[in-house]
Amino acid sequence: MVFIDGRRLVAAVGVLAALSAAPLSAQDAAPAPGSPAATTTIDGRQLPPPPRAFGGKIEDQALESTPWWPPQVVPPEDAPNVLLIITDDAGFGVPSTFGGVIPTDTMDELAAEGLSFTNIHSTALCSPTRAALITGRNHHSVGFGVVSEASTGFPGYNSLIPKEKATVGRILRDNGYNTAWFGKNHNTPSFAASQAGPFDQWPTGMGFEYFYGFVGGDANQWQPNLFRNTTAIYPFEGKPGWNLVTGMADDAIEHINNLHQIAPDKPFFVKYAPGATHAPHHPTQEWVDKIAALNLFDDGYQALRETIFENQKKMGLVSQDAKLADWPADKLKPWDQLTEQEKKLFVRQVEVFAAYAAYNDHEIGRVIDAIDNLGELDNTLIIYINGDNGTSAEGGPVGTPNEVAWFNGIAEMPVELQMKWFDAWGTEETYNHMSAGWSWAFDTPFDYFKQNANRLGGVRQNMVVSWPNGITDKGGRRDQFLHVIDVVPTILDVAGIAAPMEVDGILQHPIEGASFAHLFDAANSDAPSPRNTQYFEIMGQWALYHDGWWLSTEVNRFPWETPGAPNPDPLNNQVLQLYDLTKDMNQTTDVAADHPEKVAELKDLFVNEAKKYQVFPMDATVVTRLAQPRPSIAAGRSEFVYTSPMTGLPQGDSPNILNSSYTFTAEIEVPEGGAEGMIVTSGGRFAGYGLYLLDSKPVFTWNMLNLKRIQWKGEEALAPGKHVIEFDFKYDGLGVGTLVYGSPSGLGKGGTGTLKVDGNVVATRKMENTIPTYLQWDEAFDIGSDTLTGIHDAEYKPPFTLTAKLDKLTLRIDRPQLSEADIQKLRDAQQRASD
Prior knowledge:
Layout: H1 6-20, E1 39-40, E2 46-47, E3 72-73, E4 81-86, H2 105-113, E5 115-121, H3 126-135, H4 168-174, E6 178-185, E7 210-215, E8 226-228, E9 231-233, H5 244-262, E10 268-273, H6 285-292, H7 301-314, H8 340-373, E11 380-386, H9 403-406, H10 415-418, H11 436-442, H12 456-459, E12 460-466, E13 476-478, E14 482-483, H13 487-495, E15 502-503, E16 506-507, E17 533-538, E18 541-546, E19 549-553, E20 576-580, H14 596-612, E21 639-642, E22 646-650, E23 661-670, E24 677-684, E25 687-694, E26 697-704, E27 708-713, E28 721-731, E29 751-757, E30 760-767, E31 780-783, E32 805-814, H15 820-834
Parallel strand pairs: 1-3, 2-15, 4-10, 4-11, 5-13, 5-14, 6-7, 6-10
Antiparallel strand pairs: 5-12, 7-8, 8-9, 11-12, 15-16, 17-18, 18-19, 19-20, 21-32, 22-31, 23-28, 23-32, 24-25, 24-31, 25-26, 26-27, 28-29, 29-30
Helix pairs in contact: 5-8, 6-8, 7-11
Protein name: Arylsulfatase
GO molecular function: hydrolase activity
Signal peptide: 1-26
């Protein structure tokens, strides 16, 4: 039993009250040092800041001692909130703000109140741009020379942001900001995206205190692979018509409101990265109807290009004597040569895309309105970047109802077949993409697309910046050359926060971007660009900007093309082109023949930049890289055993059975009355496989890109009791077990599948071809039920929980290995093809 001396208690309470009482009102004086409300700024050179020495007094008795609390770190006075917005796969000519025909009212309004930037550049690909954006460093410098799904084991390409290159989230968090990330996260390695982590490369491990979004290149907006922090969530279940574009805005608004209520004086940093307008293009029907009523696209993609170009001339974005490059008629059929059916389909495709863009801009406006309603808009720096690269052409010349098909080599699905999904375009029944003719038009005044790092259509973006407290040149325009690596130093500059020299005891590499905050001042509207040199490289296509000159490789591959023999020497085995952007801002006139000395000079400069920023070894392979081995929880394993249900294992960490022989063995117990449900599945509506029970009958289904389904079915229902169901597949290909540069050998070959029950064969069938590269990437490997979408809508609906008892599931994979003779034959064939 403990006795309390009442007199001592009263005295202690009095001392604590005296210590916590402010001598003056909070408006009259800062909290006393050592008090619970004490705050401090830091120099920011070392993160987290070193612990402060105890500033109180310790005696034997608490009543004779003086308490002291370490001060809370706060940003410098007047540091603004920051809302960093980046949309996806949108070229220069998409928004109305920069001459486009798609209404982007939110961007228009921000431009009228702030500044328009016409000359900011991306890397030409999604996650490389995003890695550069959050670190202030070039994409190869932070391991993102290509998307994570195609990563390779070299420092510039391994998709691992190094600890010595901390993100803006980490820097601002440790300097007293609240930090959050909404939407697309394409910077967590595909092989570190499971429940087993590690989570240091997730947003929450990179300095963002809150994450609400999806992991990977894109997501079904109706049924996304969604996370809150590192936990999968399913807010769309039971909510018909739910869409992530609105759901994400709702969550961001709620989060910002909560922060303001809890800590109104603490600034926030929010990275807002919607999936729009990356495929699949999934707007609500309301927005499709709004755009369709405008009849913007009935005259075709070439007419659209001319309209955007004329709009840009009227706005002064291009000179009156500027011209457009020729239409690539050999790759994209001119509009007047299309059939009526093709025109009808293509108009439907683009109306859905445009609706997606307008819808997304509207929802961004809701987030900004919420900040305004809190009274925080004047002190919020809003950076709204249109696109992380040029408009995507990955739908190919005729578009596709299923983007997953493109990644598996089907670049031109017949229009007659696509019409099957005409009415459903943009709904949950499609993973849709539009014709590349529209993509070419939406990159006006430039040409080419996403992936083309050598053309301005792939890398030149635009953005608006609004900050009422810091920008007085309302409606101004800035044309200085910038790159996304310049955004982080600009944010730090505005906030008055230094780039750290050390984070968690690790010395930091310098930030490679340069601040453009000085351009916010009207007096500096014509100031020089903060940088005069910048390299570009994606999958062997490269370019260099230097003092108004642009050296680039000639385009040798359109994005939907996958050459059988990639360029083995992308640095030197190229035709080089030279453009004087001071006279020819959109790359229409190659002057390389007139300036051979400048070509040589700039190539040497590119090599120096490439060495400095980890661009080597250069690699021109494309889709085949997706099939190459990389780290994962499953790497190096050939047997997997599961004894209980499990869902949500992402593709990058799940067992990969493509291009291999394999055997699934399920030991189950069927109850009285029969059973149904999913035993094991991977993928979903647009590509995948599953072993399940229908009316107690075993079924194995391969969903071949939503074009057909190949099945093995048992004819007899399983009796109550224990059974062993086995599906064995013998693959006919050589395999890709030994890495051969660019080799497509063994990919997507056929094989024979056999379904057995209790050792007895119940079905045998040969597959002429298999899926070569990738299952549906935003779907998981599930056991005992099926998350998100199913592989066969006509037979079951998720979650399709298994009602039999699963005792054990075993998967054995036999990956064919190439012999040395096979490898040499392939190399010889590649060499002949390159010669």
